[in-house]
Specification:
Blueprint lengths: L1 E4 L2 E4 L2 E5 L4 E13 L5 E12 L4 E5 L6 E6 L6 E5 L1 E5 L3 E5 L3 E3 L11 E4 L13
Antiparallel strand pairs: 1-2, 2-4, 3-4, 4-5, 5-6, 5-7, 6-9, 7-8, 8-11, 9-10, 10-12
């Protein structure tokens, strides 16, 4: 199954769309490509995803509590990548990595255990560092 809605593109083995709630559920080899207003592109892969077309909110989780893979492609410079228990997004404004978060790339430390979030960009609260 492949589905595009605005800045999001999903691919998965199985999907269900509920017309009454305007919500998607996807399972099996879920791939997400999501654009942010900043021009950055987020790519993630996991086992299950949910997306609410009305609010623009969605989430992606791995199989049996395992990690999701994550990559952020900024408008300039090399990408950041990593893994987390959960990836969430809110429209084109915010992304959030939660759970066992490990992010690496220019300006990042690995091993953050708190949510990583920033409008239009990822951010590490602690113990990681925030890229300029």
């Amino acid at each position: 199954m492949s589905y595009r809605k605005g800045p999001s593109l999903f691919n998965s083995d199985w999907a269900l769309f509920r017309h009454d709630t305007q919500a998607w559920q996807a399972r099996g080899h879920v791939k997400l490509v999501h654009g942010l207003k900043s021009g950055e592109r987020i790519e993630g892969s996991g086992e299950k995803a949910e997306f609410d077309q009305t609010t623009g909110r969605g989430s992606l989780v791995g199989a049996a509590g395992g990690p999701v893979s994550y990559a952020r492609f900024p408008t300039e410079g090399p990408p950041d990548s990593g893994s987390a228990t959960r990836l969430e997004w809110e429209g084109q404004e915010h992304i959030r990595l939660t759970g066992q978060v490990h992010v690496w790339g220019r300006g990042w430390s690995s091993g953050a255990t708190e949510p990583i979030t920033r409008p239009g960009r990822a951010r590490s609260k602690s113990p990681g560092t925030v890229p300029p």
